[in-house]
Every structure is written in structure tokens, then in C-alpha cells.
Amino acid sequence: MASFEFSDKVLKISEQAMEMARPAFSAIDANAEANTAKVLAAFQKHRVAEPLFAGTTGYGYDDRGREVLEDIFADVFGGEAGLVRMNFVNGTHAIGTALFSLLGPGDTLLSISGAPYDTLQTVVGLRGNVCGSLTYYGVNYEQVELTAEGKIDIPAVKQKAGKAKSVFIQRSRGYTNREAFTVDEIEEACRAVREVNKSAAIIVDNCYGEFVDIREPLQAGADLMAGSLIKNPGGGIARGGGYVVGRKDLVESAAERLTMPGIGGECGATHDFMRTLYQGFFLAPHTVAQALKTAVFSAAVMELLGYETSPGALSRRSDIIQRITFGKPEALIKFCKGIQSGSPVDSFVSPEPWEMPGYDCPVIMAAGAFVQGSSIELSADGPMRPPYSAYLQGALTFESGKLGIMLAAEELLRD
């Protein structure tokens, strides 16, 4: 590769990794084709046309482009209604908004996927005495611990779900060692909840999982799901925002929480964002496929270098995240520096661990992205605590993702 100088060892490992990855690539391409067909059919069904991209100002009343986009999200993801807004500052905000809309004083939130992601722990009230958390407002919190194999404990779910007002499932692994839950596993968990509780609202944190499968959690029994637009469904084009999709009454409640009672989803100017949101969602199945291929390739390379990976190169995946365990802080930092050096933006920057808001230890983050914090673009981050694992995600194109992984490998091999 004339533009980059790779050692013979890295070039050989790259060739071996590509051979390992080819069977997985074929399955990823087939999945992307099926999901692209769903998105294209929804665009055509809702008669997407140039005027829908215009956007609105001020209050944003009668924003037809916003309404159609929310209908498209609902159709593709299997919901009755959608709330797709730039008002959401991140995925935690979208998920938290949905949770606050579902729960009141005295209600019980039951997490059946163990402890939620770090930033959501603060939202719930598990970390720090934060004014405005769910527990601050009198919401009770319980959780079902995962089995020793990192799976949802179905018998325990049946024991504890009976009194819950809302049941929470985190699809992705977060900063844990478990695998992401498949849609089939989420479906089994939803059935278990329904056996003992017909009325509980089941909400899924779907961050990093959209378009990885041909089904989404709403099509497996969940009532509501939420996520970020600078992850999978934004396709690398959306510049911010989040979504909530699901049962119509629950989406309307989330809209009332996002804005104000009596206003709900009727307001919210879209300015000049609509074209990018439409285009990003259209590209999302393909972009997710690029991220998945990069994850598979990275797993193969790191396994050949002797590191522990999860999922393995040929394992089934339910999100775009690839965990690589280094065992030592120095190797984690080296890997993130290598990923940063393979980025199109800020490639000259050297990432260092820092105290990020919402986390209980320093975190190192490599993210040379066109959109700040966009984890559908090639990025890697990890908490500076044992076992010192990097969590890799994204890549707008597999070709650039492959180069980033090779540069990271060179950094790890450098004395």
C-alpha cells in the first residue's frame, strides 16, 4: 500500500485475517441487502420527495418532513409511531426520556440485563446523589443479574417481573464482558415478562444494534426502543439527535417528556437537518455492514496477534461493538493511538485517558470523526481499569476501517 508503510508481519496477518473473515462478510452483505430493501420500500411508501427536506424554524408546527421521517422509522423498526429529534443530545438522553415518561413515584423499574450502561446508571440513580434521577423522584429500581454465561436469567425474570411498571433490556454489551443480546434472546425475555406481567412496558436500549439483524426488538415483543442517530441509524451522515420508536401511546408520552405536557411532538423545528437525517437513514444498512466487516476483520487480526476478542471473528453478532482485551493499560493506550492515527480527522492527535462525565474511572477514546462522538465512524474507547479492554466500533467504509486496524496492529508491535 503505497500511501502507508506496513511491516511484512502486519501485511501477512492482514491477508490471513481477510481469508478468515470472508464467510462472515457474505452473511453481512445479505443482511444489508434485506434491510436496504425495507428502508427503500418505506421511503417509497411514504412518497419521500424534495420538499420534505426543507425543514422548519421557530416552533416547527406542521413540519411534514419531520412527520414522514418519524413514520418511516416506525415502519422500518416495527413500531406504531416514532419520535426522531435533534433535541436528543445523545442516546442516553433518548433512553432516559423514555424511562422518565414511563415511570412515576412508587413505580418499579426492573432491569433484566444486569446493571445498565455507565451513563444510564446516573440517570437511574445508582451512581452519585444526583438531583433529578429516577430514584430521586421516588422510582424504585431492581435488577436481575445475568447468568454465569452472561445471559438473561429467564427464571429470575419470571420471579421479579410481576410487580414492575417497566422492564428494561440493554441490547449491547456496554463496558462489560458479555456478548450483545440477539433479537431471539430479547424475544425469549419478552415472553418471560409477559407470562407474569401483561401490562409492564418493555423498553430496549437499542444503541449499536440497529440493522445488525433483519429484525428489531419491537418485532420480538418489546413495546419501546430508543437510540442515537450518531450511531447506526444515522448512517454516518446525521450530525446529532436520537429516536424513540414503539407503541403509539408510549411514544406520545416520551414526546411530552422531551418537550412539555400539552406540546409533545407537535413542536420542534428541524432547521436544515432533514436532508441529512433522511439520507443517513437510507444509508444506514450499508454503513452498518461496513462497521460489521471492520469488527470481524479486527477480531481476526487481534486473534492472530494473540489477544482475546469478543465476539470471535466468526461468531454471531448482535451489535457493531468489538471487544479486545489487552490485560495491560499500555497496550490499550497503544491500540487507541493506532486507531486515532487511522482516522480521516485529527489523525495527528494522540488520545489520552481522561475523566469523562458519567463514568467512574478515566476513559481513553480514539475518535477521529466528521461528527463529534460518532461511533458509527471508526472509533475505539475503553475504561482504564482491568482487564483493560478496548471497545471498537464503526467505520464508514470497510476499506478505511481495515487500514485503521492495520495501523493499530503496527502500533501494538512497535517497541
Characterise this structure.
By secondary structure, the protein is an alpha/beta fold. The chain has two domains: 8-37 and 284-413, Methioning gamme-lyase, C-terminal domain (Aspartate Aminotransferase, domain 1, Alpha-Beta Complex), CATH 3.90.1150.60; 58-281, Type I PLP-dependent aspartate aminotransferase-like (Major domain) (Aspartate Aminotransferase, domain 2, 3-Layer(aba) Sandwich), CATH 3.40.640.10. Helix content is 39%, strand content 13%. The chain is built from ten helices and twelve strands. The chain has helices at residues 8-45, 64-77, 91-102, 118-124, 154-160, 183-196, 248-258, 274-304, 329-341, 398-413, and strands at residues 81-85, 108-111, 140-143, 166-170, 201-205, 224-228, 242-246, 308-310, 322-325, 363-366, 379-383, 389-393. The strands form two sheets. Strands 1-7-6-5-4-2-3 form a seven-stranded mixed beta sheet, sandwiched between helices. A hairpin with a 5-residue loop joins strand 11 (379-383) and strand 12. Helix 1 packs antiparallel against helix 8, helix 2 runs parallel beside helix 8 and helix 5 runs parallel beside helix 6 (183-196). The longest helix is centred in the N-terminal third of the chain and has 38 residues, at 8-45. The radius of gyration is 21 Å and the shape is globular. The mean pLDDT is 96.
Structural class: alpha/beta
N- and C-termini, Cα separation: 23 Å
- The order of strands across the largest sheet is 1-7-6-5-4-2-3
**What is Rg?**
21 Å
Number of helices: 10
Q: What's the level 1 CATH class of the largest domain?
A: Alpha Beta
Outline the biggest β-sheet. Answer: 7 strands, mixed
The share of residues in extended strands comes to 5-15%
The CATH architecture of the largest domain is 3-Layer(aba) Sandwich
Number of domains: 2
The SSE order reads HHEHEHEHEHEEEHHEEHEEEH
Count of distinct strands: 12
Q: Considering the protein shown, what is the CATH homologous superfamily of the largest domain?
A: Type I PLP-dependent aspartate aminotransferase-like (Major domain)
Mean pLDDT: 96
